[in-house]
Each structure stands twice: as C-alpha cells, then as structure tokens.
Amino acid sequence: xxxxxxxxxxxxxxxxxxxVKLSVVMTYAALxxxxxxxxxxxxxxxxxxxxxxxxxVRYPPQLVPDPATLANYGDVxxxxxxxxxxxxxxxxxxxxxxxxxxxxxxxxxxxxLRFAGKDALLLLIMATVMIPGVSVVVPLFLMVSKVxxxxxxxxxxxxxxxxxxxxxxxxxxxxxxxxxxxxxxxAAIDGCNRWQAFWLIALPLIRPGLAAAxxxxxxxxxxxxxxxxxxxxxxxxxxxxxxxxxxxNTYGIPWARLMAGVIVSLLPVVVMFLFTQRHLIxxxxxxxxxx
Length: 291
Fold this sequence. Notes:
Elements: H1 3-49, H2 53-56, H3 71-77, H4 81-112, H5 118-127, H6 137-146, H7 153-177, H8 181-189, H9 194-205, H10 207-222, H11 226-231, H12 240-245, H13 255-286
C-alpha cells in the first residue's frame, strides 16, 4: 500500500460515522413523516367525533371542536355497535381456532413430509391469496344460501378460515423448518408416533409463530367488510365494520356519529396490537430464516 493510500485511509474511516449518522437521521425522518401521514386521518376522525352533528359539516372546518361533546360516543355505545363488536369478537375467536388448527397441520406436513408435487401444491395454495374477494363473493353467497347458512356464524367462520389458511400455512411452515428433524427422530425412538411428535414436540416450539398468526387473523377478521356485508342481512349478525357502514342512512351521513363509531371499533385492534406487538414482531422474524 502506498504512503498516499495510507494517508487517505484515516480520512475515509473518519467520514464513515458521519455518513452512517446521516443515513440514520434520514431513515427516522422518513418514518416520522410516514407515521404522521398515517395518523392524520385518525386524528381528524377523533376531532370530528367530538363535534356536535351540525358542526361536523361546517365549512371551513374547525380544527378544535368548540363546543366539544361526548354525545356521539354515547349514541353509538347505546345503539347496535356493542352487538356488532361482539359478533366480530366471536367470529375472530372461531376463525383463529379453526385457522391455526388447519394451517398448523398443513404447515407441519409441508415442512416434514416429502411427496411428489409438494412445491407446486404449496405455490398453488399461496396463489389463492392473490384472488380478490369481490370476484368470489357471488359464488360464496350462492353456496351459503344453498346450504341454508345465511346469517350464521358458521358461514362467516368457514369463509374467513379459508381466506386466512394459505398465508398462515406458509408462515408456520417457516417455523417448523427451523426445528431440527432430529427432534422427530428422537421422539420416534422414545415411542412417539407422528401425531405425538407434532403435538408434544413441534407445536410447543412454534408458539411465537402461533401468536403472530393469531394476531394477523384477528386483525383480518375484525377489519373485514365485504363478506360480512354479503353473507348477513340481520342486524344481530353483522360484523362491526359492516354494522358501522350500515349506520349511514339515505337522508344524509351523520359524520360525527359515524366517526365516533369508527374510533370505538378501532380500539380493540389498537389495544391488542399494543399488548402483542413484541410477540408479533418476534414471531414474524423468528421463522424468517431456516437453521
């Protein structure tokens, strides 16, 4: 190495921390701007929900509600919204149980078994995620009507389960592949059959993945709108997003009351994410690599 190169090397090393700090600042600045852009609609919904109905459509709009009122929250909580939220909670619980059961069995088979056409079958299963819901809503409605399951929890749970199984199956497959196959061999030596190896050995080791999958399914079911609208016609069976939408009437949109309903319907998802974000992040990253 020439003396000139040796003399220049400390300069490059000295400038590197400055460049790293600049990239970190730019990254956090971009994330901050993105977060503000995402939170602005929610902040405006909160402001609107605190206005009397007449001021919600006033132009120019008030940035600070004056006077502020909680009457809109009292109206939505005293109406059908608690029933809608109960329906969505029940649907989410049933879908999580059914999805994790089916997907865990399929993911274990995909990770451990070897058979012809496995990769093609897995790609075909994953390809179903790309099918838009609006393209299958009419056939689903006809099938549900034919078997007499309209306005039932069973129909929505079956549809939601079928919709979430492909993604969860692929997610859990990555977790099962991180478990050494030697553990299955050791379990077989100890007298365990394949089912016992799955239930007693493999399944407890992928609990972070199961937790992450449960959160994903819960958020997906809670925010689902289209199938809830198509497969229910009774107000007692509507999920929360469908119920909030149907609060709109033909004589005008009660914006203040609607925003109050939206904010209340968001709270379970926000609370669940706040309490499970560590498990969600750990679960999504733990199965990302094999070995």
